[in-house]
Structure formats: structure tokens, C-alpha cells
User: Which sequence fits this backbone?
């Protein structure tokens, strides 16, 4: 190993792991701002120098984007910040977003070799965020400049991370890109799902502005299936990407389901995000979908449930409880988010399953059973079964159901019966090319995978852009021949 490298890197023994400071729970409950502060320059460089520069970097292997992590850590440790940024953004369209909200404990950081040797992982996510934020501050993040415009167009349905990443990559090549979205703002779940305290909205808006400046055309408040059919869109564009995400809330059919003040998670989070963005929202302004002063019960144990719980706390709920049918060890949500929620005073009622909503007109309480965990089911997770005579009642005047999402019925919605879907309703796409069963129509993100992660949506969007490019090149050749 060269002496310069050992001087700058491999400092994991003498330098302990440090994350950027986290705001105290009392302070952060007062607002919706992000809870992690920024690394200062010296700290980011110091923390980067802890990387052991392994020959086979498992962090990179476990990053869905195969980010070249050891190399950008080394560049940063050497003070070569702009080069670190250039390398980092070459594989990721939104490194500052992933740095903030990837579940790093399950991906890059969870596989860091120095973590396995007991020294605490390199804080990859925070450093990735630092590098890109520094780039924004210094004006290194620039809009796309197209050298040769290509006279072929791509219509992208959905402006979430999959659609944005695909659009950006195709625009870089010179294609004419139009992104359609049924919402009034672009960004998908980055804007209307994920709350501010995980991802402040200016971070997303800044990206959208940049893409517009780079020549991507956004058509908002435009729903495919209502304002146009898929066929009409295909007539207008040379290729199509479907990146519509999954939005149909999973339901529990319980007695009392029709009482008022029981809402699906996405409705609650969208309203809260709209308020944060300064919109007037009648259902919030009249107090219905505002947790203030209420006893809130959230049902579910995933990341969406955590976001609803922590949003309720910030809206000044009287009490906030989480009902989850398994125990803490078997929760699907990220361990980091559960810990944040616990710090913020949320009460978890583990091994609890709702069986009835009670009240006259409005919900007043939730009746639940205690559960015990039996042998694992076919998915390998412990199966919850009801403990006899264990029912109990929890006071509630706002109930939020966060039980997961399924795809909408796209073939019907898009009026395109040739568009095949899996038994789960996700779009069937060729594993290699991401082309659907309709020629020239590709698909990416949650609508193919089912509810997943931002980083996977970006990866899919990038992969789809390559396939669309290949498809359009061969189409052009066919025309010429
Ligand atoms: C509450 C919540 C919290 C999350 N937290 C995290 C997290 O911390 N970290 C993480 O990595 N992931 C998180 N996720 C998951 C992540 O947000 C998704 O995996 C990701 O956004 C999927 O990207 P996508 O582009 O496939 O779809 P989406 O982001 O869902 O975007 C799809 C877009 O398509 C539009 N659309 C849908 N149908 C139509 C139509 N017919 N016509 C026009 N437009 C249409 C929608 O309006 C939307 O804007 C979270 C998800 C939720 C719900
Ligand atoms: S994109 Fe996500 S998984 Fe990859 S390096 Fe960044 S934080 Fe880690």
C-alpha cells in the first residue's frame, strides 16, 4: 500500500465513528425540519478517512447503485471535494436525497467491513449528503447542457425518483423528455409522502428546477387514464416509461370501519406535506385531519407508520400510539426510524392487533387483541396469533391505517388490456430490458417492484433509460434502412 494512502485513510482505529449531531427530541418535536444537522467540513474529511479502502468494497456491492464509495471517501479525505462530487453524482441522480433517507443500516453501512470488525461503520450516508450539499453551495451542480438535440421524444408517466432519474439520463443524451404527473407538484413520494423531518422539500424542489432548466418538460395535473389514454400518449411519443408508483392503500375490514376520523396513511401525510408547502387544505384547516389535541392511534409497523406517528407528534397530538401485531424485533420499519420515534415519545403497543373501531359517528376507541408469536410462516417471519381473552381498548379520536400499498389496476385505468400485470398487480416487465408487454412501453420503480425504496427507483430509472435509448436507436435504424 502506498504511504500516502495509509497516511490519509484507514484511520478507523484512532478516529471513532461520529455522525452529524442529531437535534434533541424536545427541540425537533417543535417543528418539521430535518433532525440531523450537517457535517462541518473538517468532520466530514476526518470521518471519510476512517474508510479501510478494502479490495472488495462490500458497501459498494450492497449499494443498489453500486456507488463508488471508497473512491469518493478517499477524494474527500484528501480535500478534493469537487472531484468527490463528480464521482458520486456519476452513479446517482440524487445523492443528497439517498444520503438522507436510504436505510443505510440495511445497505451500504450495514456491510461496511470496519463495522463488522467492531469499530463502527463509516458514516457513508451523511458523507454522501455532505458532498452533494457542498456541491450545491459551490455551484457545481449544473443543469444539463445538451450538445446535440435528438428529434425523438419520451413520455414519462410519474415524476417520482424513477421517472426523474430516467428523464434526466435520457435528456443528457439529447432526447426530448416530457414527464406527466397527476399531482400539482413533481417529485412523487419525495414531495407528498416522505415528511419534511426526513427530507426537507426544498431539496426536492431544487432538483426539479434544475431538470426544468435542463430542458425537461413537466406536465402536471395530468392523469393518464383520465386526461389521456396510454394509446394517445404512445401516438405522441417514440417511447413511454410507466413510473407511477403504488398508491392503493391496503385495508383491514373491521367493524366500525365506516366511522369518521379513520384515514389511510397517504391521505394524512399528503395533507401534512401540503400544509408544510404553504397550501390551503380544507380538511386540515377545519381540524379534521389535524392531529392537534387528539388521541392518535396508528396501525402498522413499517416506515410509513413511523412517518405518521412522528408527524402526529409534531402536530401536537395529545397522545400517539402505535398498534403493531408483531414485536419490535419483527418490525418491517427501519431500526433507525423506530429509535427516532421512541425518542420522540411515541408509545408502541407491540403484539397488538385491532379488531373493532368503536364510537358513534366518529371513532372513539380501538378494540384490540394481544398477540403471541408462533412458528415462522412461509415468508420466514413469526406468525402472530391471538392470545385468548386478552382484548383491550385504546382511546382514539384519530386513527391512521398504515398497512402498506398495492398497485392500482393499471390495464383498466390506462385502457390497455395488452399491458400485463403480475398476480400482485405490479407491471410485468422484461427482467433485462424493462420493456412491458406493450412494445415501446417500459416500466420502472415501485410499479414494477411493489413498495420499495428511493434508491431502487433511481436504479430502475437509470436502467430503463439505457433500454429506452437502445430501443430508440434500433427504431431509428429501422426507419433509415
Ligand atoms: C410515507 C413513505 C415514506 C417513505 N420513506 C422512505 C425512506 O425513508 N427511504 C426510502 O428509500 N424510501 C422511502 N419510501 C419509499 C419511496 O418513497 C418509494 O419507493 C419511491 O418514491 C418510489 O418511486 P417511484 O418513482 O417508483 O414512485 P413514486 O415516488 O410513488 O412516484 C410516482 C408518481 O407517479 C404519479 N402517478 C401515478 N399514477 C399516475 C397517472 N395515472 N398519471 C400521471 N401520474 C401518475 C404519482 O402522482 C407520483 O407522483 C417511503 C414511502 C412512503 C409512502
Ligand atoms: S445510495 Fe444509499 S445505499 Fe448507496 S451509498 Fe448512498 S446511502 Fe448508501
Assistant:
Amino acid at each position: 500500500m502506498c504511504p500516502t494512502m495509509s497516511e490519509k485513510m484507514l484511520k478507523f482505529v484512532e478516529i471513532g465513528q461520529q455522525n452529524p449531531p442529531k437535534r434533541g427530541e424536545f427541540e425537533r418535536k417543535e417543528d418539521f425540519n430535518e433532525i440531523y444537522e450537517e457535517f462541518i467540513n473538517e468532520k466530514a474529511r476526518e470521518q471519510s478517512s476512517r474508510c479501510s479502502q478494502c479490495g472488495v468494497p462490500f458497501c459498494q456491492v450492497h449499494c443498489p447503485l453500486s456507488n463508488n464509495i471508497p473512491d469518493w471517501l478517499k477524494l474527500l479525505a484528501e480535500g478534493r471535494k469537487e472531484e468527490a462530487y463528480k464521482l458520486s453524482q456519476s452513479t446517482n441522480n440524487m445523492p443528497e436525497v439517498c444520503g438522507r433517507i436510504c436505510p443505510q443500516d440495511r445497505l451500504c453501512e450495514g456491510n461496511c467491513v470496519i463495522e463488522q470488525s467492531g469499530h463502527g461503520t463509516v458514516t457513508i450516508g451523511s458523507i454522501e449528503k455532505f458532498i452533494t450539499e457542498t456541491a450545491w453551495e459551490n455551484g457545481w451542480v449544473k443543469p444539463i447542457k445538451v450538445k446535440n438535440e435528438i428529434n425523438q421524444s419520451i413520455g414519462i408517466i410519474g415524476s417520482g425518483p424513477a421517472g426523474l432519474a430516467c428523464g434526466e439520463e435520457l435528456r443528457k443524451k439529447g432526447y426530448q423528455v416530457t414527464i406527466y404527473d397527476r399531482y400539482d407538484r413533481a417529485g412523487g413520494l419525495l414531495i407528498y409522502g416522505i415528511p419534511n423531518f426526513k427530507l426537507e422539500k426544498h431539496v426536492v424542489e431544487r432538483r426539479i428546477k434544475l431538470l426544468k432548466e435542463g430542458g425537461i418538460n413537466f406536465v402536471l395535473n395530468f392523469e393518464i387514464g383520465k386526461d389521456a389514454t396510454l394509446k394517445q400518449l404512445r401516438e405522441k411519443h417514440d417511447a413511454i416509461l410507466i413510473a407511477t408508483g403504488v398508491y392503493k392503500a391496503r385495508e383491514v375490514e373491521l367493524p366500525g370501519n365506516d366511522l369518521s376520523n379513520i384515514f389511510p396513511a397517504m391521505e394524512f401525510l399528503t395533507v401534512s406535506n401540503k400544509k408544510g408547502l404553504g397550501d390551503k387544505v380544507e380538511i386540515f384547516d377545519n381540524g379534521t385531519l389535524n392531529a392537534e389535541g387528539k388521541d392518535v392511534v396508528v396501525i402498522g409497523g413499517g416506515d410509513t407508520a413511523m412517518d405518521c406517528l412522528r408527524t402526529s407528534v409534531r402536530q401536537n397530538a395529545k397522545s400517539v400510539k402505535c398498534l403493531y401485531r408483531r414485536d419490535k424485533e419483527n418490525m418491517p420499519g427501519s431500526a433507525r426510524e423506530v429509535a427516532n420515534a421512541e425518542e420522540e415519545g411515541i408509545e408502541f403497543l407491540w403484539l397488538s392487533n385491532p379488531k373493532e373501531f368503536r364510537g358513534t359517528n366518529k371513532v372513539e376507541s380501538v378494540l384490540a387483541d394481544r398477540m403471541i408469536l408462533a412458528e415462522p410462516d412461509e415468508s420466514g417471519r413469526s406468525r402472530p396469533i391471538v392470545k385468548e381473552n386478552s382484548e383491550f381498548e385504546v382511546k382514539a379520536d384519530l386513527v391512521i391505517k398504515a398497512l402498506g400499498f398495492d398497485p392500482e389496476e393499471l390495464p383498466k385505468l390506462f385502457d390497455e388490456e395488452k399491458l400485463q400485470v403480475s398476480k400482485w398487480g405490479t407491471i410485468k416487465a422484461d427482467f433485462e430490458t424493462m420493456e412491458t408487454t406493450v412494445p415501446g412501453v417500459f416500466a420502472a420503480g415501485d410499479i414494477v417492484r411493489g413498495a420499495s425504496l428511493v434508491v431502487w427507483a433511481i436504479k430502475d430509472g437509470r436502467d430503463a433509460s439505457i433500454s429506452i435509448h437502445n430501443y430508440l436507436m434500433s427504431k431509428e435504424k429501422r426507419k433509415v434502412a
Remarks:
- The mean pLDDT is 94.
